[in-house]
Amino acid sequence: MKILVPVKRVIDYNVKPRVKADGSGVDLANVKMSMNPFDEIAVEEALRLKEAGKAEEVIAVSVGPAKAQETLRTALAMGADRAILVETDEAVEPLAVAKILKAIADEEAPGIVMLGKQAIDDDSNQTGQMLAALMGRPQGTFASKVEVEGDAVTVTREVDGGLETVKLTLPAIVTTDLRLNEPRYASLPNIMKAKKKPLDVKTPGDFGVDIAPRLTVLKVVEPPVRQAGEKFADVDALLAKLKEKGVVA
After folding, report:
1. What's the whole-model pTM score?
2. Which InterPro entries match (predicted)?
């Protein structure tokens, strides 16, 4: 069985994003970029399934600029067998990404497509669900535990009310949550080996996918600065202030 793992190049989670002066978007100049943390968890889980003998090959795929090769090399250094970059300098929306992934999955025929539940740059949480719908495959989202047995995968999901366990017939789509595992660090020897692993470069046009945006960003602004609180000597003073603001009659 193959496992296909989409990964995204995003601003490193330790970096505070800056908004461009004209409000047209986020400033990426001289900003540290890294693999989306949820995708890193997906890579780790795919590798663990391979090490357990449940899969034969792990394929990392990314949609983005040429520099996304660095992100794919990180996945290869962790242990993925090969990688595919669908290169484009345009911003690609979740639906277009899902269509590209479907085309790749149709070619590669993976038993599982395992991806992070969301990317930390846009927090869309859409691509996995859209991919499952386009492919007509069962899906297990927000996975905190994944077990493969025979032709099925059991996914323990994190939901508002606690945990939910679903059993999916393969092939299936799985999206990973934070508590699924702790990703490994790539060792120096594996980083060197990753440079020799195959990495194919494609374009959206190779898969016949139109990536023209359907949404227009009007403006990006910093969140408002939180105002300082006020202290009151007693309840009467608090009530007086609330009446002044019209909160209470």
Report:
1. 0.85
2. ET-Flavoprotein_bsu_CS, ETF_a/b_N, ETF_b, ETF_beta_N, Rossmann-like_a/b/a_fold
